[in-house]
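quick q for whoever's on today - can somebody do inverse folding on this one?? i tried earlier but teh output was garbage lol. tokens:
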């Protein structure tokens, strides 16, 4: 079993999924506001839970994450629910690198190849740079801007997204609080589901 799939016991999985379903009760300042302008520089923290199948058996991965995005570079750190660093991923236009304690760094040409080989399923980092700010590219290739009234989309690479909950963002804008993503794929069984909860943005 891959180290990332040993993040927690079954009980911790259930606890994390319950935590992901519980979001902030802070009321929206303006529920009809739009998402803010896309930013190349952003720092986020949150929780992630993924459910998939491997060799016909259901699997779950969950934990906390930090997302540090700068022009031309994204650094993602994954932590167990107890705060232990599980993995660090760095993505640039040229390479994607995975670092794990006690292992040699793994480098591939892109994040899809890296996570598919390392995790057995693709962590959609390329899409997440948009999703975390309320944007996506839809199935027709058009730019999608989410809002509380327009909260679902199928992306051009087959992800079904729903922006479930929102929170107050900078300058009176809104920013996603919870995102549910699902994609059918033969690589991991019938479906891969990812639930993301983002901590309040400072």
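ok took a stab at it. sequence:
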């Amino acid at each position: 079993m891959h180290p990332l799939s040993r993040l927690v016991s079954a009980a911790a999985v259930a606890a994390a999924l319950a935590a992901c379903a519980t979001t902030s009760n802070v009321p929206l300042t303006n529920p009809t506001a739009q998402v803010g302008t896309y930013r190349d520089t952003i720092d986020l923290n949150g929780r992630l839970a993924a459910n998939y199948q491997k060799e016909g058996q259901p699997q779950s991965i969950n934990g906390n994450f930090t997302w540090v995005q700068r022009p031309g570079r994204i650094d993602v750190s994954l932590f167990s629910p107890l705060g232990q660093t599980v993995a660090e991923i760095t993505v640039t236009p040229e390479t994607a690198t995975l670092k794990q304690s006690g292992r040699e760094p793994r480098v591939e040409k892109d994040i899809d190849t890296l996570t598919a080989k390392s995790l057995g399923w693709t962590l959609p980092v390329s899409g997440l740079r948009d999703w975390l700010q309320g944007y996506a590219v839809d199935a027709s290739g058009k730019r999608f801007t989410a809002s509380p009234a327009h909260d679902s989309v199928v992306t051009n690479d087959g992800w079904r997204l729903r922006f479930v909950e929102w929170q107050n963002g900078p300058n009176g804008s809104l920013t996603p609080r919870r995102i549910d993503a699902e994609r059918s794929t033969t690589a991991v069984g019938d479906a891969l589901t990812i639930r993301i909860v983002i901590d309040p943005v400072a």
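fwiw Residues 116 and 124 are 10 Å apart (CA to CA). also Residues 1-24 have pLDDT under 50 and may be disordered. so keep that in mind when u check it
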